[in-house]
Amino acid sequence: MLEIKNLNVEINNQLILKSFNLNIKENEIHVIMGPNGVGKSTICKALLGDPTYQISSGKITFLNKDITKLNPTERSRMGLYLINQNPLEIEGVSNASMLRTALSDIKGEHVPIFTFNEELKAICKQLNLPESFIHRGINEGMSGGERKKNELLHMWILKPKLIILDEIDSGLDVDSLKIVANSIKEYLKMYQASLLIITHHNQILKYLKPNFVHVLKDGQIIKTGSYKLATQIERGGFTNIYKEFAKSENK
Hints:
Elements: E1 2-11, E2 14-24, E3 29-33, H1 40-48, E4 54-62, E5 65-66, H2 72-78, E6 80-84, E7 90-94, H3 95-107, H4 113-126, E8 137-138, H5 144-158, E9 162-166, H6 174-191, E10 194-199, H7 205-208, E11 212-217, E12 220-225, H8 227-236, H9 239-250
Parallel strand pairs: 3-10, 3-11, 6-9, 9-10
Antiparallel strand pairs: 1-2, 1-4, 4-5, 7-8, 11-12
Helix pairs in contact: 5-6
């Protein structure tokens, strides 16, 4: 599904990711964990092609195609999808209008409005969102939890192959977190999609139970394990893992 090989990423001439490597197969859930400032969000920016983040060397392959030099629109058309902790508000553009236009662009054909609206209504019901959200401005006047659910509405319509969650559990109450996690689990099962979660705590992982947990330090993965690694971090933080890594480096 995704291969990142020896990726170096800079911003303002500062090296953030250093020889970063990651492989994600179909229908796998991977988590990248680490405290603030270690480069977690840079991974999201580099994957989506944010021009502010310069790839100085390395390669990103998605669905067996080199996407390192593709722009964000081309990557999105291929099936990359990001939900971040602060989804943007776009006034004057409704969810329905944007999604129907985007879907027509992806499929290269006209999208029938009746079946499209019926699908939107069904997804709103699943996410416990009012149907009024269909014709509401994108994230306009929405709470943090509503914005995250609204992004899931987009996900279900656009049907991406790789979903990236950047601190999605930030600002979600217990009930909303459960709805969001269950919706993502159902989506992954239905479409055999893959998931990359960027986070520094364990809240959403308790529901999603990842296949692999990676710990990031100074732009590199220093430890990989199962979901048990996330529970270890929840109990003892990152300090012990960083100390273990330092000892191994000094041997």
